[in-house]
Amino acid sequence: MNYRHLYHAGNFTDVFKHIVLVALIQSLLKKDNAFCFIDTHAGIGLYDLFSTEAQKTKEFLLGIEKIAQHANPPELIKAYLACVRTANKSSDTLQFYPGSPAIVDYFLRPQDRMVLTELHEADYLQLKKTFPHDKQIAIHHQDGYQGLKAFLPPKERRGLVLIDPPYEKPDELENLLSILPAAVKRWETGIFALWYPIKERLALERFLTSLKAKLTRPTCVTELSIYAENLPTHLNGSGMIIVNPPWQLDQTLKNNLPWLWEALSPHKQGKIKVELN
Ligand SMILES: C[S@@+](CC[C@H](N)C(=O)[O-])C[C@H]1O[C@@H](n2cnc3c(N)ncnc32)[C@H](O)[C@@H]1O
């Protein structure tokens, strides 16, 4: 396991993923009953953009840095930026970037719960430091896919599973073809959001077609690429396949993603996609 998210925190794919995450959480907040958020690949929770690692790649400059100070973003992006601002203790200096657990923590109500799994030992220990003694948050040093077997369905019966692997293993997508449908079978009414990188379009389309054929529930596929998709080795963009998408998620994304693409795409290349199936 060589992947460390600190090198990539706040990059354009993180921004896209976390804005979609906020949309999903906001839909869960519409009802008073408790929800459970399960993050299979949690990372360290909060990222210091002044760290040697983040400064080495400076990926956040083409991501969060580009939109953090925008005066008038659309509503969903405004809510996401409020969360980033809170991670920075309302300071105008952008030093900290909230990872998925910190973003969800920002919205968590007393009745809600989070279950986080992180396999990298140092990252797991750091994650525990990010959320010390929080009774609403369970943190496990465990393989996230094993966690799906252990924690589904949660007792709340409503909520969201985020699956955000580093794609270090060449067979990660192939394995997800059985892992995700099996997880959905365990919790048929849960919302599942799987993040994926956009590199080789043909292979990706084959994966999405096979996955959708195995899923018996409705899906929404959303993508944002900011470069022309002609370099199979390059990270041109990223996407998420959402199983059991909340009502009007597609419309919310259509209202917000064009603004995001306009703000993030350096040469106005790439595109956005929001597709309900
Ligand atoms: C892309 S990062 C997660 C970022 C985080 N979800 C966020 O949005 O802030 C992927 C994380 O998964 C961890 N990881 C890798 N393989 C794992 C596995 N099998 N189970 C759980 N965590 C894993 C890595 O150490 C890394 O911290």
Write the layout of secondary structure elements.
Elements: H1 12-28, E1 36-39, E2 46-48, H2 52-57, H3 64-67, H4 75-87, E3 96-98, H5 100-107, E4 113-117, H6 121-130, E5 137-140, H7 144-151, E6 159-163, H8 172-186, E7 191-198, H9 201-214, E8 219-225, E9 237-243, H10 249-264, E10 272-276
Parallel strand pairs: 1-4, 1-6, 4-5, 6-7
Antiparallel strand pairs: 2-3, 7-9, 8-9, 8-10
Helix pairs in contact: 1-4, 1-5, 1-10, 8-9
The structure holds S-adenosylmethionine (SAM).
CATH superfamily: Vaccinia Virus protein VP39
Which cofactor or ligand species appear? Answer: S-adenosylmethionine
Stretches where pLDDT falls below 50 for ≥5 residues?
none
CATH topology group: Rossmann fold
Looking at the overall shape, the CATH architecture is 3-Layer(aba) Sandwich
Count of individual domains: 1
| CATH C-level name | Alpha Beta
Mean pLDDT: 96
Count every beta strand, where a strand is a DSSP E run of 2 or more residues.
10
Radius of gyration: 17 Å
In which order are the strands of the major sheet placed? Answer: 5-4-1-6-7-9-8-10
Find the structural class using helix and strand composition: alpha/beta
**Terminal residue distance:** 34 Å
The geometry reads as: globular
Number of helices: 10
Q: What would a concise description of this structure say?
A:
The chain is α/β, with parallel strands linked by helices and 277 residues long. The chain is built from 10 helices and 10 strands. It has a single domain, classed as Vaccinia Virus protein VP39 (Rossmann fold), CATH 3.40.50.150.
